[in-house]
Specification:
elongated; 9 helices; mainly alpha
Length: 199
């Protein structure tokens, strides 16, 4: 972003640009996306849009970053609550898997178009950093569950578990698999994780 939205009005402008971008991608496809179309749909001049974003790619990458941050923060809060309440591990893993599938894979067909675009566009370094952060936070939460049926989390275990789950979700999303969003798909991911973390 060229300009950080410090005031409420600037934040509303950014939000309107994001909404217009998503609507265009979802209704017309990625190929139809231009900064002129975004500005027109958002009700701004192209100059106003360029104050914040130099290109359509910059808009999309900012949207991806914001959504990933929202999901990671939500997952962190969920895992902290689970540890505080000493919830049963399988239920925690199921909620975690469901949230990841909903956020990074499934949902209505229109939302899936934006998710696929995000997977194709996002930079490897950004994804790697998000996976590292998720692995560290989840390892900490798992260690706090104090369940004798669980192995103590190790860096190796968390690396393999996070990459396995997110790799499957990414592949299913990019393939537009009909398995996404089905209970059976999530069941298999839960089995995968439980197999890795069980003593």
């Amino acid at each position: 972003m060229r300009k950080l939205p410090m005031q409420a009005r600037s934040q509303r402008t950014i939000e309107t640009i994001f909404q217009a971008t998503a609507q265009i991608v979802e209704s017309e496809g990625e190929g139809a996306l231009t900064t002129n179309k975004v500005a027109k749909k958002a009700g701004f001049s192209i100059g106003t849009l360029y104050q914040y974003f130099p290109s359509k790619e910059a808009i999309l990458l900012a949207m991806i970053q914001r959504e990933r941050r929202r999901v990671l923060d939500g997952l962190h809060a969920m895992m902290k609550r689970a540890a505080d309440e000493q919830r049963e591990p399988r239920a925690v893993v199921r909620e975690l898997v469901h949230t990841l599938v909903e956020s990074f894979g499934s949902g209505p067909q229109l939302k899936r178009a934006m998710i696929r675009l995000a997977w194709r566009m996002d930079h490897h370094d950004n994804i790697t950093q998000a996976l590292r952060e998720a692995a560290e936070r989840n390892a900490f939460a798992l260690s706090r569950l104090k369940d004798p049926a669980l192995r103590p989390p190790t860096p190796e275990m968390m690396f393999v578990a996070t990459r396995a789950v997110m790799g499957v979700i990414r592949s299913a999303s990019l393939e537009d698999s009909p398995l996404l969003g089905t209970p059976e798909f999530e069941d298999e991911l839960v089995r995968l994780v439980m197999g890795m973390i069980s003593a």
